[in-house]
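Pilot study result, target chain (209 residues):
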Amino acid sequence: MQARSLIDTLIDDLGSVKSRTPFLGLVNNAQNQILGVDNRLMLVTPDPYFRTTAGVYTYVANTAIRTDEYPDGDAPDIRNVICVYVPISQRAPWLRHRGVERITSILAGVVQSAVPGADDCKVSFRKSHDPGTTTDTHLARAYRWPKQLTDEDMQMEVPEDFVYTLLYQTVMMMLERAHYGAAEVNMGQYRLAQNDFLVKYGTPVPLSE
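Predicted structure:
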């Protein structure tokens, strides 16, 4: 659904609105809030290759994750990396004893991105594991930020079944906090919509190959 549709509804419901200009930013921020958690909608699929350099243990995720298979300007903005692993096909023969096995991450830590477009998601390998210089050995299980809304004709990434419940209420909550210092939306309905969203889309993908 285009952002314009929700903005039209918000303006109609609010009545006396002097300008529609701020609403695109509000919808964008609300979408970031909703989708800025690990969820199936923001999972980067398939797991992308993670480029490494011998002797280097810390990487900016947006730089390390290979984006050559994405159209220009359409590379994902990585928000979180939950693991970097070597797929079964790349492992030594004595480690391929099962067709499916749980992924073992070789990371020491991850700093999640705080805001979209900041290139601030960082990934660190354990010092005991020099990843070597590779382009197609390691894979990452990563979650991205939604595409940032810069035009009302852009498609929102919040599913349509949650646009007029969770997304709408999140925008109204932001407006009320900005103008009155507190949100007066029906918090019961908001939490119910939030819970329904997490039940439907928020279950993390199992770490198995």
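One observation from the pilot: The helical segments are 3-14, 21-35, 61-64, 163-180, 187-201. A full batch analysis is planned for the follow-on phase.
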